[in-house]
């Protein structure tokens, strides 16, 4: 087992990997919208923004240290396809480019003239430097704990704490009336808002980084690796929950400054109100470091995955390719990236949640393959249609049928079909022999050959 200090350092690394720009801007936006219903909304947000991601890290640890092992429980083909989709979504297609564009929007753009801000060259030059640093930091993943856990994380925390302490000592205003969406169902809306952090998908990606960091320190036993992963996850979870509560409260008390289009504007206005131009500089610095740490973690994890999957490219070659692709996508602009990523996230996120829950249950109940298949098929049937709807694809009569599913209007209609699919899978396994029959046929075929 690792020492408490070593576990704490790895936990700080995990916190830094999770705590990207999205984690800074979504809680304030939720706080301003929820108003006096802030606390139930934040509880829902913390469940999906903290609880599920940490369960994801633990699930990766107990399943053998990678997403393929988890998804392979369903089917070998699914064990390749689903991880590939996750790594592409959280990696070069959406997640990694978003870190560069958000860092530019909040860390550089406020200090540019209006003419430069609207040009293409500032973003391009900024992202060249940003992803160049990302590539350099990701070249040696074994040093990720030292570089992020010991250096970048304390700097990030110091910058944020300076802003937050001032806001607590000198509150800007009180909690306002909630907007319509948060009047009746603040918990559900907060739960869905937690999706936007992408941290549950990120957990499936970052899990291998944490496991490798633990193994690099001499821990080899699967149980010891899992226990250390849990300890690191607890450290990261406490940090995330604390900052979400504070940032949410900060957004909730900002209504007197006027309505804002997003959490970035809320934080910018609050920081200017509390510290003036220096506050804007502090905010930009904090966001830039948060984005850089997240980008390094995503490139590291995705490079490990694709280099092992493809085998013809080395880790360094894949890391370079990911940074170059991310550079190109980032220059499409933040708005375009978010517009495309949200429907994909709506389709993939529920599948990841169900897979994590089943993986953890498997450690206690020995969940059989038919249960995995049934629950995930039930989930996918709904989440894929939700993704199409988010792309504004007309669903016609299918949309009318989907509206009849329990909790569908609240955005979590996949929950009931997942449960039904899991029950059908369990019954199938019970009456057909399920896994046992498959193993028997495999052994028989092996003897005959």
TrEMBL record:
The chain crosses the membrane at residues 41-62, 74-96, 119-139, 151-169, 195-214, 234-258, 278-306, 318-338, 344-364, 371-391, 411-431. It is found in: Cell membrane. It is a multi-pass membrane protein. This is Branched-chain amino acid transport system carrier protein. PANTHER family: BRANCHED-CHAIN AMINO ACID PERMEASE BRNQ, BRANCHED-CHAIN AMINO ACID TRANSPORT SYSTEM 2 CARRIER PROTEIN. The keyword Signal does not apply. Its main location: membrane. Belongs to the branched chain amino acid transporter family. Component of the transport system for branched-chain amino acids.
